[in-house]
Amino acid sequence: MTVKFCCMVMRINIDCNGCYRKVRKALLDIHELETHLIEKKQSRVSVYGRFSPQAIAIKIRNKTNRRVEILEVQEFLAPEDVVENHTHHTDHDQKPLMSTSWNMAVTTHNNQIETRIV
Predict the structure, then answer these.
(1) Other Cβ atoms within 10 Å of 110 Cβ, number
(2) pLDDT value, residue 115
(3) pLDDT tens for each residue of 72-86
(4) CB within 8 A of 46, min separation 6: which ones?
(5) 117 in helix, strand or coil?
(6) Per its UniProt entry, which superkingdom is the organism in (predicted)?
(7) Residue 64's domain is classified under what CATH number?
(8) Strands 104-109 and 33-39
(9) Does residue 21 surpass a pLDDT of 90?
(10) Exposure pattern of 17-30 as b/e (b: 16+ CB <10 Å)?
(11) Total of domains in the chain
């Protein structure tokens, strides 16, 4: 089981605010995740951190009792691996770690909370 920096997009059915809270609580309880983004209207959840994608999907499934469908996984080099690969150049198929950080904006309208990347 390989553990790398990953960005994973999943589809999780989020019908109501209770489902949203259940998914959010499950994501906050998983310590491998550095950040997450829940798109309630699109029923999509994006997570970023050092984890195995299958293991995280199983954890979310077990904690929320909701079906989890992995849509996309992007793997990145860890910051220490980037320094090592500049000298060795062994892995050419991996993408470097994103240099920009995720800036999140939280807005509320019509009693709904929306979190988005700006």
Answers:
(1) 5
(2) 57
(3) 999 887 666 555 555
(4) 7, 8, 9, 10, 36, 37, 39
(5) strand
(6) Eukaryota
(7) 3.30.70.100
(8) unpaired
(9) yes
(10) eebbebbbebbeeb
(11) 1
